[in-house]
Design a protein that fits this description.
By secondary structure, the protein is α/β, with parallel strands linked by helices. The chain contains 5 helices and 6 strands; from the N terminus they run αβαβαβαβαββ. It is about 30% helix and about 20% strand. α4 links the parallel β3 and β4. α3 runs parallel beside α4. The chain is globular, with a radius of gyration of 14 Å. InterPro entries: RbsD-like_sf, RbsD/FucU_mutarotase, RbsD_FucU. This is Fucose isomerase.
C-alpha cells in the first residue's frame, strides 16, 4: 500500500502511467469499446468492475494533462443522427475542471472512426465495465 495513491489505481495501471512520456495518450474505454482489437500495439489493462468516472478521477489525481496542446482530453463524438443522450460527458467535464485550471476548455471531440484510429496509437487502453454509451475518453499526458 502507498499513501496518497487512490486505491482504484492498480499496480499495473500505476506502472503504465509512470512509463508514459509527454504526449503519450491513454484511453479509458466503456464496456462496448473494442479494447483488445484497438489495443494490438498498446497495453490493455482490464478494469471491468469499474466505471470510467471513478477511474478518470483517480488518474487525474496523479496524471498531468498536456499543456502544449489545446485539447488534451478527447471524447468520442456521437454518430450523426444518433439520439443517445450523453450526460456522462458533463460528469467528465466536472472531473477535469477539478484537476486542470483551464477547465472544460481542454475537452474536445473526435469523430467516432477518427477516435478509433487515434486509439490504435495510444500507449494504453483501460477496458472498463462502463455501461454508458459514448463514454470513451482519451487523455494526453503532459509534464510536471
Amino acid at each position: 500500500m502507498l499513501k496518497g495513491i487512490p486505491k482504484i489505481l492498480s499496480p499495473q495501471l500505476l506502472k503504465v502511467l509512470c512509463e508514459m512520456g509527454h504526449s503519450d495518450r491513454i484511453v479509458i474505454s466503456d464496456g462496448n469499446f473494442p479494447a483488445e482489437s484497438m489495443g494490438k500495439d498498446a497495453i490493455v489493462i482490464r478494469c471491468d468492475g469499474h466505471n470510467v468516472p471513478e477511474l478518470l478521477e483517480a488518474i487525474l489525481e496523479v496524471f498531468p494533462l498536456d499543456t502544449y496542446t489545446e485539447k488534451p482530453v478527447t471524447l468520442m463524438e456521437k454518430v450523426p443522427g444518433d439520439t443517445v443522450e450523453t450526460p456522462i460527458w458533463d460528469t467528465y467535464r466536472e472531473i477535469v475542471k477539478k484537476y486542470d485550471a483551464r477547465g472544460e476548455a481542454v475537452v474536445g471531440n473526435l469523430e467516432r472512426f477518427a477516435f478509433y484510429e487515434a486509439a490504435k496509437t495510444a500507449y494504453a487502453i483501460i477496458a472498463t465495465g462502463e455501461s454508458a454509451l459514448y463514454a470513451n475518453i482519451m487523455l494526453q499526458k503532459g509534464v510536471i
